[in-house]
Design goal:
Length: about 500
């Protein structure tokens, strides 16, 4: 039995590990990049693993964690390999199709569950056509395929924004890759279109690198509370809710953008040489070619299934999908009864299909539960801890950023008291914010390896917020030589802060 997982990001790695642990036989993981992790290695910021592990990993650290799990599980991995197409061979037949008596005793739903979850002698097989520079084009066969292909970013033309298309217009992810892995700065002054998490995170990253972020535009506040505080408020970056870019200007290089209220109104011209577009994601499912995930051994998970705000939820869904793929093959390590219940509660089209979970017990249950959490005063929070617009000031005077919940707290100083927090960490956070605000700095240092010019790093403890730019000056003077693995100290007592600078990704010797 062979399972092929397409995509080596957090969803693909988790699904592959899960299927292997459930006894799926050979599990082959295909990734088009030359490294595992998907976009995680370019995400130098923290915020990964807070719910699953209770730790605040960077993207690189979280990717390394699951890379290690995948390698330890004995999963076969093909890097720099792009999947061109998938093709189903044969049609699955229920095991009891020629037993009319037994067939009549089972409902169609029971027959489908049996075929989907228990594996059949007549099940379909799959041919996966892929290509790599090393081996050219080849066809791989599999008994089940898991799509963990993630998303791509929505571009400026897809936003139907008129104007010229000069250099200086980037998706947020492209700019993130340039700055965090390729050692290029996108410009000197920027406008960011999109008030979601990636837009806020890039606003902080660009500011720390000396790029002036003139403003962030968006329909409403959609980012996590911790990102609103640590990426925007910490650096006093202007945000305009209800505004958008209506035109771009420039020829060889962007000269500026025209902005206006979304509902219509007077335009304003903003000079800038960089526009970051962070306006949504589109699942990459073109490889399906009309096949329906959730049927005949084809499964989908992660952001290719539905866009998640937290990588923890991506991992949870992928772990469940790996179990379902193993159950489809009749793997001995799988609890078939439990998988049948999960399949019935999970999606309307069968486990691993494209529709949203119908009940809280299926993949994404934690996401749904968290969206309904309330604070002690009974005020409801938005999905993933996102705060209702202008919540601060109406319900409290401080946002807790310890975890993605983003509790709105009312903090009094004389005498000191805190309300609105859902755990004791909120009180400790409030005391620290009043006395001496501290932040963990995540950034990059140069390397001697021309193939990997930058290495992501972080301080091993929170440092004074007022010292962030001082530390950035010291960081720019550092050049490291490989091999380096996550966790290795690359600079001690950086800028006299008492904090060490540690690697969060890997780099080999030149």
């Amino acid at each position: 039995m062979r399972v092929i997982v397409i995509g080596g990001g957090p969803a693909g790695m988790a699904a592959a590990v899960s299927a292997k642990e459930q006894g799926a036989g050979e599990v082959l993981l295909l990734e088009r990049r030359p490294y595992l992790g998907g976009v995680l290695p370019q995400c130098v910021h923290t915020g990964f693993g807070t719910q699953l592990y209770g730790k605040d990993y960077t993207g690189g650290e979280y990717a390394w964690l699951w890379k290690t799990k995948a390698e330890s599980a004995g999963i076969s991995i093909l890097l720099s390999t792009t999947v061109l197409s998938i093709e189903r061979q044969g049609q699955p037949q229920p095991e009891n199709a020629d037993q009319s008596g037994q067939q009549g005793q089972e409902s169609q739903r029971e027959q489908r569950d049996r075929a989907l979850l228990c594996g059949q002698q007549g099940r379909a097989t799959w041919r996966v056509r892929c290509v790599s520079a090393a081996e050219g084009t080849k066809i791989l066969e599999a008994d089940a395929v898991i799509l963990a292909t993630g998303c791509r970013e929505r571009t400026l033309p897809q936003m139907l924004i008129p104007g010229s298309r000069p250099a200086g217009v980037f998706t947020a992810g492209a700019a993130q890759l340039m700055m965090n892995m390729k050692n290029y700065l996108p410009g000197k002054s920027a406008v960011i279109l999109g008030s979601g998490d990636i837009g806020l995170i890039m606003a902080r990253r660009m500011t720390l690198e000396g790029i002036r972020v003139k403003m962030i535009l968006g329909q409403e506040s959609t980012g996590l509370a911790r990102n609103i505080v640590q990426c925007v408020e910490d650096f006093q970056i202007p945000m305009r809710y209800g505004w958008t870019v209506v035109s771009t200007h420039g020829h060889a290089r962007l000269k500026g953008v025209s902005i206006a209220p979304i509902q219509g109104g007077k335009r304003e011209y903003v000079p800038c040489d960089t526009l970051l577009v962070a306006t949504g994601l589109i699942p990459e499912l073109e490889v399906c070619q009309g096949y329906e995930p959730g049927k005949d051994g084809l499964f989908v998970c992660g952001n290719a299934h539905m866009v998640h705000d937290l990588v923890d939820h991506v991992t949870e869904e992928a772990l469940e999908t790996g179990k379902l793929a193993a159950a489809y093959l009749g793997a001995s390590g799988t609890d078939f009864g439990g998988m049948r219940e999960a399949g019935a509660a999970g999606t309307a089209r069968g486990a691993g299909g494209l529709e949203e979970p119908r009940e809280s017990g299926g993949p994404g249950a934690l996401r749904e539960t968290q969206a309904q959490e309330t604070d002690k005063s009974g005020d409801s929070f938005g999905s993933q801890g996102t705060l209702p617009k202008q919540a601060v000031g109406k319900q409290g005077n401080m946002l807790c950023t310890v975890c993605p919940k983003g509790c709105v707290m009312q903090v009094e100083t004389a005498p000191f008291s805190v309300s609105g927090n859902q755990c004791e960490k909120g009180e400790l956070f409030a005391h620290q914010e009043l006395e001496n605000p501290k932040r963990v700095l995540t950034t990059v240092v140069k390397t001697e390896n021309p193939q990997v010019p930058l290495l992501s790093v972080r301080t091993d403890r929170a440092i004074d917020k007022s010292s962030l730019f001082q530390v950035m000056k010291a960081v720019k003077k550092i050049t490291v030589a490989g091999p380096i693995r996550p966790g290795k100290v690359v600079a001690q007592d950086i800028a006299g802060t008492g904090a060490d600078l540690v690697a969060t990704w890997n780099v080999e010797s030149p």
